[in-house]
Each structure stands twice: as C-alpha cells, then as structure tokens.
Specification:
The complex is a heterodimer of chains A (157) and B (118).
Chain A lengths: L1 H10 L4 H4 L2 H18 L6 H20 L4 H12 L23 H9 L8 H35 L1
Chain B lengths: L6 E2 L8 E2 L4 H11 L8 H14 L2 H6 L6 H32 L4 H12 L1
Antiparallel strand pairs in B: 1-2
Helix pairs in contact in B: 1-2
Classes of the chains: A mainly alpha (157), B mainly alpha (118).
Chain lengths: 157, 118
C-alpha cells in the first residue's frame, strides 16, 4: 500500500531547488494522501490511517528537499526500511557509525531530534537543523491549510 | 567581531574551556568540546547563529530581544522541533478523522482549489 505512494514521490526527484516550493509539495502530498485513501476505504482504524498519513507527510517533505540534504536521505532511509525489503544494495558510501562523544546535553538532544544527526559534524548538524526546521514549518503550514479547507468543506455540507 | 579570551586550565585533552556567555564564543567552545578538528571561523558561526535565530518563530524572537546566547538558541531550536513534530502528529490525526467522514469526489476538488488559492 504505502510502497506505491513512496515510489511515486521518489520518481519525481529532480534537482532540489525547483521541487521545493509550496505548490509542488502540496501536489505531492495530495497524491500520497489519495493513495492512502484508495488502499483502505473502510476497513482500517483511524489510528492506522493517521500513521500512514504521518509517514506520507515525512516522505513528501524529505522527497521535496532532495537528496542533497543528509536529513532527507536519513528520513527516506528510515521510512523505506519499514516495509521489510529483502534485498540490500551494496552501499557505495560507507556511513560513519561511530557514536559522537556527546558531552553537551543540548547537542545530544539536537542530534536525536534531527534525522541522521548521529554521525554529523557539529556545524553540519547546525546547518541541517536549520534546513530541517524550515521544511518542517512549511509542511505544518501546508497540512494546516489542508485541514482547514477540508473542515470548511465538511461544515458546508 | 571581538573574541572573548578563552581560559584553559589543564592539559589540552582534559582542559576546561570557559568563555563568557556571548553567542559566538560560546558556540565555538561547544564546537571545540564536541571533539571536531576542522577550523571554523567566527563569521561562519555568526552566520549559523543568525540563520537559526531567523527560523525560530516570531514570538520566540520577541521574547529574547536581540542576540540570544548559544545555549538558549539550541534549547529554543530543540523545543521548536519537538512542537513541530507534535503538530504534525496532531494534524495527521485530524486529517485521518476528516478523511473517514468524506468519501465523494467533490471535496477533493474543493481542497485543491483552496490550496491553489493560498
């Protein structure tokens, strides 16, 4: 169910900047939403669907940010790992898994919050955090707009 | 940009670097204590600080008038990211609830029209 929607978003990954605009993200998110809807009309509980919507939101956000950002790559990796794929492609880049000596509790907290933040250098972490905050805020504004217009439509009928 | 003097008490690896809680130097101290070796300039740090501070919501910026210290900035960023995560969860719950109630084709057109208007 979810794999189909993810492949849709993944195939339209172009260069990062042209895709990162509010209408583009909105279209992608709506497409993913309609796919979530088509798969399980009445048989699913709302919490299951809410989880699917949440994953769709994060996947669209990461796909729109592009592969240039470490947080978007880490987020997509985390989402793709869930459906339980068997095949493992040989990785060309060896990811550094050495745990960073966290002496500063604030830095440790930030690393835990930003996806992929465990293996980064400190200033890289700050840059990624700034970009992540920007994309998250835009995604929240987008979802708020959708919910507002949907509830407005519902209140009319 | 003047750099406040760093006082180093012991040997290099076990040294305790202290600095005033001005913004750039404190961030530089945190950077050094995190163990990374790359040389970083003050301008880069200032740029990162101002970039992060510009992204925080306006209410938070009004509360801390002027320049925030680095630890305050990190704390505000962490709490802001947490609140954004909570909002995403809440909005996806509401969307799931809304999608169960509407099932015909016309509300979708309304939504799309509403989005393209904004």
């Amino acid at each position: 169910m979810y794999r189909r929607s993810f492949k849709d978003t993944k195939s339209s990954l172009g260069s990062p900047n042209p895709n990162f605009s509010k209408p583009m993200v909105a279209l992608r998110f709506l497409r993913a939403l309609s796919l979530v809807r088509c798969s399980g009309p009445g048989a699913r509980s709302p919490s299951y669907r809410a989880r699917g919507i949440r994953r769709a939101a994060y996947a669209c956000m990461a796909a729109s940010a592009g592969p240039r950002r470490a947080w978007s790559r880490a987020l997509l990796r985390k989402i793709r790992r869930r459906p339980g794929r068997g095949l493992r492609r040989p990785r060309a880049v060896i990811r550094r898994r050495r745990p960073v000596g966290g002496g500063d509790p604030l830095e440790v907290a930030l690393r835990r919050l930003v996806p992929g933040g465990g293996c980064m250098e400190y200033c890289r972490l700050l840059e990624e955090a700034a970009d992540y905050v920007k994309c998250l805020a835009m995604q929240v504004r987008l979802m708020q707009t959708i919910v507002d217009s949907a509830s407005h439509v519902n209140s009319i009928d | 940009m003047e750099v406040f003097p760093l006082r180093r008490s012991h040997s290099f690896y076990s040294s305790t670097l202290t600095a005033e809680t001005g913004s750039a130097t404190e961030l530089l101290v945190r950077y050094i204590m995190s163990g990374r070796g790359r040389r970083i300039t003050d301008e880069e740090i200032n740029e990162l600080i101002s970039k992060l501070q510009a992204l925080l919501p306006a209410e938070s910026r009004r509360r801390n008038a002027g320049r925030m210290s680095a630890s305050k900035l990190l704390k505000e960023t962490c709490s802001y990211i947490k609140s954004l995560h909570r909002e995403v969860d809440d909005l996806s719950d509401r969307l799931a609830g809304l999608m169960t109630t509407m099932d015909s084709n016309s509300p979708q057109a309304e939504i799309i029209r509403g989005l393209l208007r904004s």
